[in-house]
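Reopening this one. Same input as before:
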Amino acid sequence: TAPLAAAVTLPLTDTLFAAAAQGGSPMAAPPAKFEVFTNQTIEGLVKSLQATPGTKTLIDVAAMPLGLQMGSEEKTPFPEFEFHAHRDHLFLILEGSTRIEVGGKPEGTHSEAAGQWHAPRSEGATSIALTKGEMLVVPRMTPHRRATEGKVVFLIVHATTT
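Same output, byte for byte:
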């Protein structure tokens, strides 16, 4: 086996594709290169985001049907609820805490883009407090919005389909 540092940069070789093809599952084209985010990389990103709140895209949904962002915020009020036709979210809290309102029936809905809507209210939404180490999965078409009273560093995975 290769050490983790080597695994970060290992390209997928033609041998792997040939072996897969011989097994009855030919591949038309090599898949995208895999990515490993080491503990040091994640810790560095967390420290950077704690120093300067914002969002860093780690994997762009344009590259594959999966987006990965790390973000931080401090004293951020609830924006409008949002929901998407083709995107699921997974929120993982790395440091601090935040509150996410999820579900309900959106009211006053307006379209932001194709397959994406916002609403100022969602009747019957559930408020969930998330703290370090906790995760929330929000399926597509589920209204959600986030508010942070203190500080939070989080990871968001966007699974996107058409």
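So the earlier flakiness isn't reproducible anymore. For the record, The chain has three helices and eleven strands.
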